Amino acid sequence: SVESWFKLKIVVEKSTVPVRTAEAIEKILCHNTNSKGIKYQILSNPEFLSEGTAIQDFLNPDRVLIGGSQCPEGLEAIQKLKAIYAHWVPEDRMITTNLWSAELSKLADNAFLAQRISSINAIKNTKIGPKFLNASVGFGGSCFQKDILNLVYICDSNGLTEVANYWKQVIKVNDYQKSRFVKRVVTSMFNTVSGKKIAILGFAFKKHTSDTRKTPAIDVCKGLLGDNTCLSIYDPCVTEEQIQKDLSMDVSVVGDAYEATKDAHGICILTEWDEFKNIDYQSVYDNMHKPAFVFDGRNILNVDKLREIGFIVYSIGRPLEQWLKNMPQQA
């Protein structure tokens, strides 16, 4: 009836949250002494947006997931939310399910994405990438690790120890990839970077964002600083204040790639900003100490061209040149 719907409120949960959060929200709202007889239906409508393309993803989603109670009121609430999306989203892109499945689906989605990244970082060849996956120094951002640990907790809570251990390993492989990259830098540069200047190009966890949460650059920079290297960091979007805060120490943050690389012994590419592909690397090489090293942690540079200029190049997922093959204690 009209009266019953007047007293029914629909609350839509959008964030990626632990499973059963919607149930907790419902209990809190329904036990509110000021609710005045209002009833609530909680819907789970997790977003599948990516930083840097969020508006485009929202306007043209590949799917919209709506979960709710399977009682008559819950099913009707689902239909009302579907009707809002129907103004711009085709019917066949809208998926409806129960609350548990909707909340779990977002965790599983991020976990699978993270697992794919860890897999390609462990095994990279021309058959697998770059059409499907790209090797890199590791994944970052606010979601992947958090959501995997959430999934680990669910598995552990339900006695699925082996499954939980599998997802833990995804994080371990990601951490290994970052430490392996640092070891490669150190061993390639005669087993020490102490007192040497290394240019860090890119600090955000991916391009088109200033977000540095869980960015691989933090662990790489701290690993190099642990060997007393001198870092010169440039990112087109991340502020100096944020970089200093993330590293918990004063480091040199500069305004462009050429300033960062001047008089440097090596360069580490840690974010796949497009501008790093278009740098005048001949000019950069001329202003660096020799031998000049490039460690491409995002696999975005033309390795052959850099080697023709004179750089010693390490690019994740690509064959090593003879110099690096002959270095002892390889990472």
- Topology, number of strands: 10
- Portion in strands: 5-15%
CATH class of the largest domain: Alpha Beta
Which fold does the CATH topology of the largest domain refer to?
A: Rossmann fold
Kindly describe this structure.
The protein has 331 residues and is of the alpha/beta class. The chain has 2 domains: 2-97, NAD(P)-binding Rossmann-like Domain (Rossmann fold, 3-Layer(aba) Sandwich); 175-326, Rossmann fold (3-Layer(aba) Sandwich). The chain is 43% helix and 13% strand. The chain is built from 13 helices and 10 strands. The chain has helices at 2-6, 21-30, 54-59, 72-85, 99-122, 144-157, 161-188, 216-225, 240-247, 257-261, 281-286, 303-309, 322-325, and strands at 8-13, 39-44, 64-67, 94-97, 197-201, 230-234, 252-253, 266-269, 293-296, 312-315. The chain has a 6-stranded parallel beta sheet, sandwiched between helices. It has a two-stranded parallel ribbon with strand order 1-2. Strand 6, helix 9 (240-247) and strand 7 form a beta-alpha-beta unit. Helix 7 (161-188) packs across helix 8. The chain starts with a helix and ends in a 6-residue tail after the last helix. The model has no long low-confidence stretch (mean pLDDT 86).
List the helices and strands and how they pair.
Layout lengths: L1 H5 L1 E6 L7 H10 L8 E6 L9 H6 L4 E4 L4 H14 L8 E4 L1 H24 L21 H14 L3 H28 L8 E5 L14 H10 L4 E5 L5 H8 L4 E2 L3 H5 L4 E4 L11 H6 L6 E4 L6 H7 L2 E4 L6 H4 L6
Helix pairs in contact: 5-6, 5-7, 6-7, 7-8
Organism: Glycine max (Soybean)
Pathway: Nucleotide-sugar biosynthesis; UDP-alpha-D-glucuronate biosynthesis; UDP-alpha-D-glucuronate from UDP-alpha-D-glucose: step 1/1
Family: Belongs to the UDP-glucose/GDP-mannose dehydrogenase family.
